[in-house]
Structure formats: structure tokens, C-alpha cells
TrEMBL record:
Residue span of region Disordered: 310-336
Origin species: Petrolisthes cinctipes (Flat porcelain crab)
Family indicated by similarity: Belongs to the HARBI1 family.
UniProt GO MF annotations: hydrolase activity; metal ion binding; nuclease activity
Keyword field contains Metal-binding: yes
UniProt cofactor(s): a divalent metal cation
Biased composition regions of type Pro residues, renumbered to the chain: 321-330
Function statement: Transposase-derived protein that may have nuclease activity. Does not have transposase activity.
Name assigned to this protein: Putative nuclease HARBI1
GO CC term, one of those recorded: nucleus
InterPro entries: HARBI1-like (IPR045249), HARBI1_animal (IPR026103), HARBI1_dom (IPR027806)
Length: 352
């Protein structure tokens, strides 16, 4: 009778040693790698500590702090592999799971609305108006609006709807900045083929906030010529006449540049938004965009600077060509255009 085969001994699991980055790195290095200092990382962790706390008592379970750090590293670089290469410890599979879990917690409406809020009270709107008027003397502005495209990999469903005018797949994101480069509203859900004007028309800003008069009279957004002129949305003249219209356009351009620079700051701070986001489905990309917007505002609140790019090339937004021309004025609603004429004549008759 043959001797029984020897029992195979199970090899003990080996865990990579994890770096305690909160104690090993100073604030400057933390900001460079994770975009927040130690206090900021702990602050964000405390927002979602409950959902991120694993009840198991097993060794090597990631703490809520480490889960936030893994997500921040991904958002700062756009590369999941760096999260497992930087002595953080988790495997690539764990990194992916942690990012999904942490995004879900931070993108809840209860968290986002703590840090992304549109001004509607007289006190809030007046403060925004004063801040904007100091830029170029343009009165009554509470926000600058624009669309920006975030590149994504081709989705498995409705792939054609995500192809934008430059021919790549994207999410078209509507964003509003105040004069201090904080985001006051963001809509991240529309495929890249959708026009900016439609996103605005379908938004709660149009249907509820301004549509139902929640904002005091005399408050305006500034947008480019891809948007329709409204009593609350002022756009530039395509062919301005000398005098008030030209003066209006000059101040409009300088003031509205806040949103262009704000988008640039957002994408420099979180490099994941600057390249192609290779996660599926697109709804997860939208979570990433909204969480980046929230974290950007937290950084602004805490006066955390944007670290210099790791390479020597300046990172700037990759704008699409101008939106298709609007129909002739005769085919467009006149109310917004007439209001713009009155506004320009009232406030920009003299070139200050």
C-alpha cells in the first residue's frame, strides 16, 4: 500500500509593509502627493469615517484614513497603479475596490451639498456681487458659467452619445465659479455630444433656482455666446457696436475669465480630470468629477495651494471649439436680448 502523500503546509500570507504617510511625510510632501495637508486629510476622513470603517478585526484592514489617502493619490495623478507602488500597501485589486467604496461615500448628496452651494440669500448674493465687481466693474454678477469636457474611455452602452465635437469620448460638465475660484454649482451627468445650452436648460438652475425666483432680482450669471441670453444670464455681443456694447463686452470678457481659470485650477489640482479616465461605467466618472469639485472647494477653504506640475509642461484645459453659432437674433427669444441692451446702456455708457 502506497504511503499517503504528505500534507501541504499552507504558506503564511505576506503583507507589504505600509508607509504611515500621515506621520512620515511633512505637509508640503502630503500636498504634493495627495493635494491635502495632514489636517485636511483627517478633516475629509471624518466626513465619511462611519461608512469607511470596516467592522472586522482582521489584520491589515485599511483604516478610513488610508482609504482617503488611496483615493486622493488616484485623483491627484489619475493612475491607480501609483496607489499600490507608493508603499501604501494595497494590491491593485484592493486599490480599485477602495476607490469605488470611498467615491461612493464622498459623492453622497449629503456630503457634496456641505461644500458646493449656490448663493440664493440676499447676504450671499451681495457678497458674490461685490467680489465680482472688483474684477472689472461688472455689476450684479454672482457666478461665471461654462462647460468643460472630461475625457473618458469608450463606454459599452450608448457609446456614440459620448463622442464630442473633437471626436473623443467625454462627459460635458457644467460648472459655475465665484470670483474666488470656488465652485458654486456643478452638473456632471451629460454625455459629450450634448450642447452646453441644453445642459443649462435642463438644469435645476434654470428650472428651479432662477425659474422660480429663488435668487434676488438683479443677480446674473456670465456665460459665453454658446448660451442663450436671459435676464439672469448675460452673454457677450457677437458684433458689438462702439460705446456701451463694446464697453460691456470688454468687462464681460475679463470678468468671465474667472470660470476659465477656475477650470484650469481644478484640473491642475486633480490631474485625473486632465487625461482620460479609464473607469466604467460613465456614472462612476461623474462621481469622480463631483468629488474633485468638492475637494477643490475644501482646499480653497483651507488655503491649500496647488502644487506645481511634476513635469515642466504647463497644464491647461483643452477647450473644444466654440459652440455652433446661435440662430439669428430674429429666431431667438427677444426678452433676454432686449434686457442685455438695456443693461449695457445703463451700466456701460461711459468707459470707466
Amino acid at each position: 500500500m502506497a504511503a499517503p502523500a504528505p500534507l501541504r503546509q499552507r504558506r503564511p500570507r505576506r503583507f507589504r509593509e505600509r508607509k504611515d504617510v500621515l506621520h512620515d511625510l511633512d505637509d508640503g510632501e502630503l500636498i504634493k502627493r495627495y493635494r491635502l495637508d495632514r489636517a485636511g486629510i483627517i478633516f475629509v476622513t471624518d466626513l465619511v469615517r462611519g461608512p469607511l470603517t470596516n467592522p472586522t478585526g482582521r489584520n491589515q484592514v485599511l483604516t478610513p484614513e488610508m482609504k482617503i489617502i488611496v483615493l486622493l493619490r488616484y485623483l491627484a495623478t489619475g493612475k491607480m497603479q501609483l496607489c499600490s507602488m507608493d508603499d501604501l500597501g494595497p494590491s491593485q485589486q484592493t486599490v480599485s475596490q477602495v476607490i469605488t467604496e470611498t467615491l461612493m461615500a464622498l459623492s453622497s448628496n449629503a456630503i457634496l451639498t456641505q461644500f458646493i452651494t449656490f448663493p440664493i440669500t440676499p447676504h450671499e448674493t451681495q457678497r458674490k456681487i461685490v467680489d465680482f465687481q472688483q474684477i472689472a466693474g461688472f455689476p450684479g454678477v454672482i457666478g461665471a458659467i461654462d462647460g468643460t469636457h472630461v475625457r473618458i474611455s469608450a463606454p459599452s452602452e450608448f457609446e456614440g452619445e459620448y463622442v464630442n465635437r473633437k471626436g473623443y469620448h467625454s462627459i460635458n460638465v457644467q460648472v459655475i465659479f465665484d470670483a474666488k475660484y470656488k465652485i458654486t454649482d456643478i452638473v456632471a451627468k451629460w454625455p459629450g455630444s450634448v450642447h452646453d445650452a441644453r445642459i443649462l436648460n435642463e438644469s435645476s438652475l434654470n428650472r428651479v433656482v432662477f425659474g422660480r425666483g429663488m435668487v434676488p432680482d438683479g443677480c446674473h450669471l456670465l456665460g459665453d455666446s454658446g448660451y442663450p441670453s436671459k435676464k439672469w444670464l448675460l452673454t457677450p455681443y457677437l458684433r458689438p457696436q462702439p460705446g456701451p456694447q463694446s464697453n460691456y463686452n470688454r468687462a464681460h470678457k475679463i470678468t468671465r475669465s474667472v470660470v476659465e481659470r477656475g477650470i484650469g485650477q481644478l484640473k491642475r489640482r486633480f490631474h485625473v480630470l486632465h487625461g482620460e479616465i479609464r473607469v466604467q461605467p460613465p456614472s462612476k466618472v461623474c462621481q469622480i468629477i463631483k468629488v474633485c469639485a468638492m475637494l477643490h472647494n475644501i482646499c480653497k477653504d483651507r488655503n491649500i495651494y496647488i502644487p506645481a506640475a511634476e513635469d515642466d509642461e504647463e497644464e491647461v484645459d483643452d477647450p473644444l471649439p466654440l459652440q455652433p453659432p446661435q440662430p439669428p437674433a430674429a429666431q431667438r427669444p427677444r426678452e433676454g436680448l432686449l434686457y442685455r441692451d438695456e443693461f449695457a446702456d445703463l451700466h456701460f455708457r461711459n468707459d470707466n
